[in-house]
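User: My advisor, Dr. K., asked me to get a structural model of this assembly before our group meeting. I'm new to this, so sorry if the format is off. These are the inputs:
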Amino acid sequence: MKTFQSTFQVMNSGRGMTELTDKIVALVAKAGVATGLCNVFLHHTSASIVICENSDPDVQYDLETFMQRLAIDGDSRYKHIAEGADDMSAHIRTVLTQNSISIPVTETKLALGTWQGIYLWEHRVRPYERKVTITIQG
Amino acid sequence: MKTFQSTFQVMNSGRGMTELTDKIVALVAKAGVATGLCNVFLHHTSASIVICENSDPDVQYDLETFMQRLAIDGDSRYKHIAEGADDMSAHIRTVLTQNSISIPVTETKLALGTWQGIYLWEHRVRPYERKVTITIQG
Amino acid sequence: MKTFQSTFQVMNSGRGMTELTDKIVALVAKAGVATGLCNVFLHHTSASIVICENSDPDVQYDLETFMQRLAIDGDSRYKHIAEGADDMSAHIRTVLTQNSISIPVTETKLALGTWQGIYLWEHRVRPYERKVTITIQG
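Assistant: The format is fine. Below is the predicted structure of the whole assembly, which you can bring to the meeting.
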């Protein structure tokens, strides 16, 4: 068994999802692990790593609408408001989703389901550069 | 260290939880790993893997009621509606929970807490066959 | 590659977060793994492991307020009520967050982001002693 690890930055265009699947598939190919796990970790508390349906962009649109209703921007009950109306809501959205997901590697390939893609979900309104670490073991 | 991996299908009876604990405990016994981790991965975006209280079935009932109120079926604001009223709500329920969970293996056994069970939570109304991969490393 | 595993108990003071970061950083130092993953697992269904912003205590305050509004204590629709008004809400809060998180280990150190801390989030009102297992592989 061996461990392969790689860190990269992702520049996004603000609130919404950026697909990482191709990048991670390529790292799994490079790692040369036959059977194991690939962990995707995001080093931030205002954005998430999610496995989302990868076929209809309306799913991302509806998830975004849902989250905006659930974790209200600029809610008057928030105390953590120094960085703007989307700051505390971004932390809530992150805690309700995930920033670390492990996916099987099977026969040297990332074993995602047919409709699964891996996305960085930025929760802040303005664009951010985010750091992701991929760890493959097997 | 070694990696043991096994994939199986679970037929469920539609929306609700199916316990996987015994199946996973048996795979851990078969793997023969003394100390490590057991990852449970679900290859779908409309069902979840959850660790739920394993003693009182009312907990599952209340979780289901809660989710039906939170992620409304057939919400008029959804754009992703082609597959029916329970399609987009199922994606939301999946993103709010998990489809990959790692559990310690200690002294060759799955080290769940006394009240923890592992469940596949189907979010679609009709029955589905779902694919699960177990990866044990240690 | 090797596996290092350690289990400890955390006594908390009831509903709210207890930081575990220093304890886990110390275990990573002890494990002597150069590159790999560190999994944090909580053996309970009424408390969570979360990665939370580590700088402003108001973030924890607002997360707690948010969860109290989302998963209402003593909701009249709950059937699982034998253990009190905060019992079913605690199970809901756990399923909406996580009790297993894997974090990269890079150059022998836990590779958390600058603003990330690891917390045990107790969801029950009274104090509890909770069991945590750390598994480090690399």
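One thing worth pointing out at the meeting: The first helix of chain A runs from residue 21 to 31.

User: Perfect, thanks a lot.
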